[in-house]
Structures are given as C-alpha cells and as structure tokens.
Amino acid sequence: RFENVSMAPPDPILGVSEAFKADTDATKLNLGVGAYRTEDLQPYVLKVVNKAEQLMLERGENKEYLPIEGLAAFNKATAELLLGADNPVIKNGQIATVQGLSGTGSLRLGAAFIARYFPGVKVLISSPTWGNHKNILSDVGVPWSEYRYFDPQTVGLDFKGMIEDIKGAPNGSVILLHGCAHNPTGIDPTPEQWEAIADELEEKGHMPFFDVAYQGFASGSLDDDASSVRKFASRGFEMFVAQSYSKNLGLYAERIGAINVILPTADLAARVKSQLKRLARPMYSNPPVHGARIVANVVGDSVLFDEWRAEMQMMAGRIKGVRQKLYEALLSKDKSGKDWSFILKQIGMFSFTGLTKSQSDNMTDKWHVYMTKDGRISLAGLNLAKCDYLADAIIDSYYN
Ligand code: PMP
Questions:
Q1: Does the structure show a pLDDT above 90 at 400?
Q2: All structural domains of the chain with their residue ranges
Q3: 214 has a pLDDT exceeding 90
Q4: Aminotransferase class I/classII large domain location, by residue (predicted)?
Q5: Any catalytic annotation for residue 211?
Q6: How remote is the C-alpha of 153 from its chain's centroid?
Q7: Distances, alpha carbon 92 to alpha carbons 53, 69, 270, 298, in Å
Q8: 348 within ligand 1 shell (Cβ under 6 A)
Q9: Is there a catalytic annotation at residue 247?
Q10: Buried-exposed string 270-279: b where 16+ CB fall within 10 A, e elsewhere
Q11: CB of residue 211 inside a 6 A radius of ligand 1
C-alpha cells in the first residue's frame, strides 16, 4: 500500500538546521534559519515574554478552547499594531481579523480563501521570495507566477522589472508583497517606489496580499515597518495581510499570527470573517491560546509594550552591529576592490550575499557555515567574534 511513497527531499531552510546539528566541527556556524541569537549565539526568550507568562500564571488562566477566530483581545491588539489604533479602517470595522498558526498558517488561510472565492485568480510572488510561499500556494491549488524583484547586477531592487511584471499580469491578480525586510534579499522598495507600486496595482485592479513577518525588525520601529501596509490601506485597497510574531516577539514555536482582510465596509468584513472561520474549522478547529495571551498582555499593558519595543530595538541593533562588522571585515580582507556596500544597504535579519549554489556549498563543506543555497545568510545567527571567520569563508568561496 505504501510501496509507492518516495522519500521527500529535506526542506531547503529547516533542512539546513538538521545538517548543522549533525556537524561535529567546533567552528560550525548556523546562518540558515532566521532565528535571533544572542551575542553568545544562544536562543533568546524576550524578558517581556517571561513577564507576560508570569502574569498569566498569577491570573490562573485556564486552557479552555478558544473560539475559531482566536482570542478577541489578541485579534484587536494585532490589527491595531498593524494599522495604528486610530486608523479609520479599525474605527469603521472594515477589517476581518482571524488568529492564525503564525505567519505560515495565516498565509495558508488567506490562500485557501483565494482558492475558494477567486478560483483561477493568479498570485504573483517576488523572485526570489521566502520558499514556503510557493508551497503554500501550490498546496491549496492557487496558480502563481513570479515578478522580477532582485537585480544581481546592482544587488538591489529590479524596480523596472517589478513594475513591468505587475503591469503584465492579468487584471485582478493578487500581488504578494513583503511588508518590510524582504526575505531573502533584505531589499525593500523606497516610500516613493511603494507609491508607484500602489499606482500600478490600482491601475490594474490587482489586490495586494502583504506578508508581514518582521514588523519592528527592519527599522526597530513598529510604526515605520508598517508604513507600506498603512499606505495601501489609506488608499482604499481591499487586501490581505498576514502577520507573524515569530521574530519580533521571539515566539517561533508558539505559532502565533493573524490573517487580516481589509474591506470597504463593516458588513463585508463580517461576512469575510465568517468564511475564514469556516475554512479554519476543518483544518485545525481553533488556534492555540498561549502565544495569543502573551501578545495581548504585552500590547495591552503600556509598561510591557515599552519594554518590548526596547528589546526589539536591542535585537535589531545587534544585527545592525554584526552587519557593519562583517562589511568592515570583507572590506579589509578583500583586496580586489569589490564593492561590498550592498551588505550595509540590506535590512532586517538577512543578507543576500550573491553567492551561487556551488559557492554556498563551499561555505558549508569547507568552512562549516550553514546557509540556504540561494546565498542567503541570517545575520541573526552571527556574532561579532565570528565576523572575521565568516568574511574569510565568503572571500574564499567567491574567488575559488
Ligand atoms: N513570511 C516570511 C517572509 C518569513 O520569512 C517567515 C518566517 N521565516 C514567515 C512568513 C512565517 O514564519 P512563521 O510561520 O514562523 O511565522
């Protein structure tokens, strides 16, 4: 019966961690998965998360089922964090928010909604993008294609190509956009470019689907990092927005996030929300409560909220520090005159090094540096002490 089942390939991102674990070399470095590490390269639980959990224990909160749409206090907090509490979209009830299983599960709910209500509509994703976008869309049977995003020549945004491909898509397509800190490139459009992208979407009747997995991690400011989404919302787009608290609150394993749909009326928002619940019920019935309570407690308490912001800035600051140090190490070690400044221009957790697959293999096989084969390194897994070593590995891999 199971004879025809073949071995699935390892996941291109999570498989890197498995390979890292199996390596016994002391110099090994895991720059694969985007998870924050301390300067000692240890996982980090935010202090503010511990405080919120303490509060939960003191209150003796129970483990009853949540409603299908999740914890009401979380859904309110997450929509307000995204758009700002005084946003007219929130005041007018024009948003359907359903708690999801982190960013992935929230994207999946949005994709399932598209499959059911907009059959045949194509989703355009950036080339490159986070690998799971393709899996999510393919698994719900939504057709997708790519728009140009990364220009290897400039190691920057291929803005012209992006606009051309958005123009070329069938009217009424869905355009998947990274709200901030694009994964894997670390390259975001400028505010002017966002405006032009919005113009083009409007012109073509396309719908934006924002993936917001790094709010607060790009600039250190929750508001600044949501400015792309808020711009589109203020222009009156109907749109999807998936959120994740894996990175900005370090709640990777709690699987806490949300899918939001912004609509022209409160009545439509209520109907869309009812259908999102209908999609969620047979998939997982209702979401987990622990992470939702943490987020609601942190956002709902002004002291904890301020502490969260400070810790997020600390994390974002540490990553900026290693980014700078890595750049300086490359500059001083590489005598070829190559311009490495793209490393400083990229933002968020990642650097897209431009290393090819075989060069990335050299990084791992010779230098024990674990990274994805698209040339992406997670700076969140790097510390100051290892920057020189990493620069040696990169230069060796580039030129040999
Ligand atoms: N979208 C992007 C662009 C991401 O980088 C990630 C995390 N790597 C996610 C979504 C979702 O992650 P999670 O399911 O852990 O929230």
A1: no
A2: 14-45+306-399, 65-300
A3: yes
A4: 27-394
A5: yes
A6: 25
A7: 33, 19, 12, 25
A8: no
A9: yes
A10: eebbebbbeb
A11: yes
pLDDT at 120 over 90: yes
Superfamily per CATH, domain 14-45+306-399: Aspartate Aminotransferase, domain 1 (3.90.1150.10)
Closest protein CA for atom 2 of ligand 1: 213
Q: Is ligand 1 within 6 A of the CB of residue 179? A: no
- For ligand 1, atom 12: residue with the closest CA: 103
Residue 276 has pLDDT above 90, yes or no: yes
Condensed to tens digits (0 to 9), the pLDDT of residues 139-188 reads 999 999 999 999 988 889 999 999 999 999 999 999 999 999 999 999 99
| pLDDT given for residue 14 in this prediction | 80
130 is annotated as an active-site residue: yes
Q: Residue 205 has which token pair? A: 């009747």
pTM of the model: 0.96
Q: Which atom of ligand 1 is nearest to the CA of 34?
A: 8
**Ligand 1 atom with least separation from CA of 182:** 3
34 CB within 6 A, ligand 1: yes
From residue 324, give the alpha-carbon distance in Å to each of 160, 261, 349: 29, 38, 13
Q: What is the pLDDT of residue 219?
A: 85
Architecture of domain 65-300: 3-Layer(aba) Sandwich (3.40)
Q: How far is the CA of 49 from the centre of ligand 1 (A)?
A: 20
